[in-house]
Amino acid sequence: MVEKTAITEVFRSVADAETRFGLRRSEAEDFFPEWCENLPPLTDAERASLDLIRRRFIYHRQDGDLTEGTVTLLMGSPLLEMTGFYDYPFKMRGEASIELVLNQDEEEIEPLRGRIDILTMQNRFWVVILESKRTTISATTALPQTLAYMMANPHPQQPIFGMVTNGDDIFFVKLVQTGNPQYAISRTFAPFASSRELYNAAQVLKNMSRIIG
Question: Could you tell me the pTM of the whole model?
């Protein structure tokens, strides 16, 4: 029986992910327009929902640091729900187990295992993954494993998006696997500091939901 290694143990840096997968970070402005162009406005009801999400998060955050699971419950999951990713035509899977096999050479393979906090699919195609981190950890430290999870997409012919958050901060990732694999990241939004930042992050998700759906 081949022993499986956790993805988090192998992909500790962005350089690890880029080297293992032949990934390149794109700086082209037209590669990831979904996070910054033609963002849909928010309704008054959506702003009220976001204010509630933020108030709840701050209320629990005041007692100290929050675990990954709590961040998912208080920030990540409510944002995906509010922006339509839990409704038709999308399907949601929580704690989705994945397996990734890296070909080290002709004779050796390296099976890796991981668990995506929330995976959203459309007609069995992966469209968005959520990766949460505890509040004591910078959200950007989750980028290497997020890229690995995205590269495990069984339908690489279409782009896939990621959302990474530690509750205090949020950023988005886009990955395209066809041809020479490329990825890009958005700016970091800081909902802990400002309600406007949470509104902006929600607009990005709402835009992705509209484009994908």
Answer: 0.93
